[in-house]
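I had to read the description of the data format several times before I understood it. Each protein is reduced to its one-letter sequence and a matching series of backbone shape codes. The format is easy to grasp once an entry is in front of the reader. For illustration, here is how one protein appears when written out as sequence plus structure tokens:
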Amino acid sequence: MIFLDKKNQTKPYKKFYKLYDIALKKMQLYPEAAVISSYDKALDIVDSRFVNIKYILDDEWIFFSNYNSPKSKQFNSHNQVSAILYWNSINVQIRMKAHIKRTKSSFSDTHFHERSFDKNILSISSDQSAPIENYEKFLTKYNLTLSKAKSDNTIKRPEYWGGFSFFPYSFEFWEGHASRLNKRELYLMQNDLWVKSTLQP
């Protein structure tokens, strides 16, 4: 689930809210799952992964990650990303182009303290995407961190973990049909206004 404040009442956002509500009514699994693609300047490659969108606050889309991970380094070196959500329950794809930056520390602190204890222990114990000898070694590391945290009875958000906020400047809503007569609507931000156009299937 995504927390929506629905403050943004511009056309692409109103369309997104409507489709999101329909997908929920159709029992869409993981409606918050989005593919985020980024550019790795050092390797001159593009990279993609799923993340969970946790909040949409006005025009700010927020997910959380380890700031030392490869994707975080890519975001820092190149602040443009693309994002895609696909809801198979209603056969809708939403494509976005956006600028990305770190979320305010205070907001990351608040979210961290509202999360489950086990999830926070995972955030603390994992050097996300770094190699380790085997999965069992990581479980040992996780359990040691868990045991220490329980004895201390307190945990604090590590500086290397927090939110990323992206701000879309392009939306494409793709609504699929069995006939392949797919409906496509594009919204581009131009001079602080959303400009709508229709794309051929």
In short: The two ends are 30 Å apart (CA to CA). The chain has one domain: 3-116+159-199.
